[in-house]
Amino acid sequence: MQKFIVIGGKRLNGRIRVSGAKNATLPVLAASLLTDKGCLIHEVPKLKDIDVMKEVLKYLGSVIECRGSSLKLDNSRVCSKEISEDLMRRMRASNLVMGPLLARFGHVRAAYPGGCAIGSRPMDLHLKGFAALGAEITEKHGFVEARANCLKGAEIHLDFPSVGATENLMMAAVLARGQTVIKNAAKEPEIVDLQNFLNSLGAKVRGAGTDVIKIEGVGELELAEHTVIPDRIEAATHLIAGAITAGEVVVENVIPEHLDSVIAKLREAGADIQLGQNWIKVASDGKFKAVDVKTLPYPGFPTDVQAQLMVLMTVAQGTSIISESIFENRFKHVDELRRMGADIKIEGRTAIVKGTSKLSGTFVEATDLRAGAALVLAGLIAEDATVIENIWHIDRGYEDLEKKYSALGARIMRVNSV
Known about the structure:
The protein has helices spanning 22-31, 48-60, 85-90, 98-105, 124-132, 163-173, 189-201, 232-244, 260-269, 306-314, 333-339, 369-381, 392-395, 401-407; strands at residues 2-7, 13-17, 39-42, 63-67, 70-74, 107-111, 136-140, 143-147, 155-157, 179-183, 204-206, 212-216, 224-227, 248-252, 272-275, 279-283, 293-294, 319-323, 343-347, 350-354, 363-365, 385-389, 411-416. By secondary structure, the chain is of the alpha+beta class.
C-alpha cells in the first residue's frame, strides 16, 4: 500500500494539463465491444479504473495494444457473454459492458458491480430499459442475466437521469431494430462524447446533451478512431487547488463550458477566473467568502466536486450550506476533515461548514475517490504534514496527481506504507 505525505503552505503556480476524462473513457471502451472491426482511442488516462476496464475487455476476448495515451482495440475475437464476478465487483462501471454485449450477442450475464461506497446506485433503471427493448431479465444469486433474440426499439422514460443507465441503453439500442427514444436522459458531457464515438462507428444517435436521445438502429458497425474529451472533474479539482493555495494556475486541455457551475461558485467565493478557448486561469489572494451549494445532475453543480469545494469552504469567511442530492453517503470525508480542524456538522444530506482560520496536518484516510482528492487539497494548505492513507482510491481517477502538483510547487510525496 502507498500513501501521500503533503506538507502545506506552498502557493501553486504554473500550468497543468488535464488528462482524458475517466468517465468518458469507460463507456467508450465498453462501446468498442459493439463492433468487430477495431477501434483506436486517444487521450486514454492511465488510471486504476481504466486498468480494470481493460481487464474486463481482455477477459471477454479483446486484444488491446497500448500506444502511449492511445489504445488500439481488436474485438473480433470477443465471444464470452459473462463477466468475471471479481472484475465486476472491483468497479461499478464494469456494468457498462452489459448493453454492448446484449446488443451484439443477445445474451449477457454479470454479477452486480462494485465501486466506491458513496451510496445506493441500483441497476433497476438499466434492467427496466433492457426489458423495454425486449430482453428477458433474470436475477438470482447475486447475478443478473439478460437475453433477447432480437432487441427492438422502444420509448424509455428514466425515473432519474442516470448517467450509467443512459449510456448502457444508448449502446444497447444502437443495434436494435427501429427507433429507441430515451426520455429524461442524463445530459452530462460524457454522454455527448459517447454519442460522438457511437456515430463514428456508424450508429445513428442524436440528442445527447438534452433530455431526449433518439437512436435509429443499424445493422452493423465499422471501425473508428476517437479522442476522449478532457476530464472536467480533474480540471475542477485543479482550479480549487490553485485558488485555495492563493496561487495562480492555468489549467490546460479543458472545455470551459463543461465547468460553468464550478466556475460560478469559485467566482462567488472570491477567486479570479479567466477563460480561454481550451484553458482556464485561476488566481486568488487566499481569502474566500462562504457560498451555498447543492449538487445536481448536469448542468448543475457536480457531486464529484462536492468534497473538493467543501475543503475551500472550511477556510472561507462565514458559514456555507452544502447539500448532497445525488448520493446519500457522500460525506465520508467530513470526519477526516474534522481531524484536521474543520468545523463541519452533518444534518441528513446537508453539511454546515463554518470557516476557520487554518487546518492542521495529521493522519487521514481516503475513503473514496473524490474524498481522497479533497484530502490532498486540505493537505496543501494545512500546517505541518498531512499523511493520506489508501491513496489507491485517488489513483482510480487522477493520473500522476503528485507529479502534476509537484511541478506547480507543491510539496507532496508518494511513499510506500510500512
